[in-house]
Specification:
The protein is an alpha/beta fold and about 280 residues long. It contains 9 helices and 9 strands.
Length: about 280
């Protein structure tokens, strides 16, 4: 998901209905401070909870040995590295719109000596810069929650996949427009973050309307709530001194308020998370 003070993920907004016109990005304000904080909370190479175990759960049962993978919105490269190292992907192409996080991702790739398997690429807003039928799997985590229109984007994902190939990932979904959801949504917007959460029905319909088959969506809200509550406990406990050293007193309080508000949205049924998977025809 997006980071806790600025967008630290691929943020895409599609304008226009029914036509894939252009992709417009919000400005990203990456800093060493932001990245250090996120990795402290979530682990090396990650900007959101779960780490390598979450990646493994998302692709569980999919044979990736020797396959070509697009990690769309790769961030700091944690998923790209584990897909190559632990799941034996033949090649992983990690793309993002921010040069600074790609530099960090490149350092992670070098650390694990995976340059022959993982290629990182900066992309610009617009159509995905790949030929039709390039990839066996698109790994897509917390990207569609930033889209104004899901269907044109999913059509592009489908285009770059081979026949019978898989898109897999996880996404945040709106469960109920209650007080906890509105508080979380307001907090995001107050910090200049542009999210467009949709409900389960709209999410499923968008994939089906885009021509994907065998769509599945498994609820992970209980699990991610546990992780979010654990993050709250760590932020106000074992990580407090380190976070205060990085962020200062005011920044630390902002971080703590953010993590508490998000955990409350999960606990009170405003926001959920699900793992999804679908195939292209063929």
């Amino acid at each position: 998901m997006a980071d806790e003070w600025t967008i630290l993920h691929l943020v895409i907004m599609i304008r226009g209905t029914g036509h894939f016109r252009n992709l417009v990005t919000m400005s990203n304000n990456y800093s060493a401070e932001n990245i250090a904080t996120m990795e402290l909370i979530y682990g090396e190479g990650y900007l959101s909870a779960g780490g390598d175990d979450e990646v493994a759960a998302i692709v569980d049962g999919v044979d990736l040995a020797g396959k070509s993978i697009l990690d769309l919105g790769c961030g700091l490269g944690g998923a790209s590295v584990t897909l190559a190292r632990d799941h034996r992907a033949g090649s992983v192409t990690g793309v993002d719109i921010d040069s600074q996080v790609l530099e960090r991702a490149a350092a992670l790739v070098r650390k694990y000596d995976l340059e022959s398997q993982v290629v990182l690429q900066k992309i610009e807003p617009g159509l995905l810069p790949f030929e039709k039928g390039t990839f066996d799997l698109v790994y897509l985590t917390a990207v569609t929650c930033h889209l104004l229109e899901l269907r044109p984007f999913l059509g592009e994902v489908k285009r770059v996949l081979k026949a019978g190939a898989v898109v897999a990932g996880c996404e945040w979904l709106k469960l109920e427009d209650n007080a906890s959801y509105r508080q979380w949504d307001r907090l995001l917007r107050e910090r200049g973050l542009n999210f467009h959460f949709v409900d389960r029905h709209e999410f499923v319909s968008a994939f089906e309307d885009s021509g994907f088959e065998q769509f599945s969506l498994s609820d992970r809200t209980g699990f991610i709530h546990q992780l979010s509550q654990s993050a709250v406990n760590r932020v106000q406990g074992e990580l407090k001194a380190k976070l205060t050293g990085i962020l200062g007193d005011e920044g630390y309080e902002t971080c703590l308020d953010w993590t508490r508000t998000r955990a409350r949205a999960f606990a009170e049924g405003g926001i959920g998370q699900g793992h999804f998977r679908a195939r292209t025809p063929g």
